[in-house]
Amino acid sequence: MQAGFVYLDEAVPHLKWDAKYATADNFTGRPVDGYRANRVVGTVQLAHALRDVASRAKDDGLGLFVWDAYRPQRAVKRFVDWVSEPDGMSTKAAHYPNVDRARMIELGYIAARSGHSRGSTVDLTLYRLDTGLLLEMGGDFDLMDARSCHGAKGIAHEAEQNRAYLKNLMGSCGFSAYENEWWHYRLENEPYPDTYFDFPIE
Known about the structure:
Largest sheet: 5 strands, mixed
Number of helices: 5
Order of helices and strands: EHEEHEHHEHEE
């Protein structure tokens, strides 16, 4: 493990996870370069902040469910390469039903550099501690669509409330939201603001 980083599933109480990019269940349709194990990793500072989030969520009977945090730079490069490959369409319905794959970089869905590679950005949601069920958020992780934006039109009231709860919760613990993805949060006081790491997750 890179110095200054930890496994979030070991560091944060009641945290559940499914590292989608370590599996074929993601928008590329196959495991992504750099993800050699289904684990979630982040900086020590990210883990400390998420422990605070988890503690506050527990008071409302909720826990954290994480899909991604630290992302190796080689994985980001894989995403960029994927955009220009022939579209097999197998993941389009689930992940980009209304977007032309070739325009994903232009539209800002994929970038050559990601805050995830600095180790203090996280993709997450909430689950109920009593049932283990994820809260309804009006759209799945990595849905590249206007429905994923904060304040999106046409999502159910329950999902609106849950998104707002998560945003307020994360904000109270030092995180900034990314307006185009309800699941994406960056630690404002991140420890490596100019470093893009590329060690694999093992």
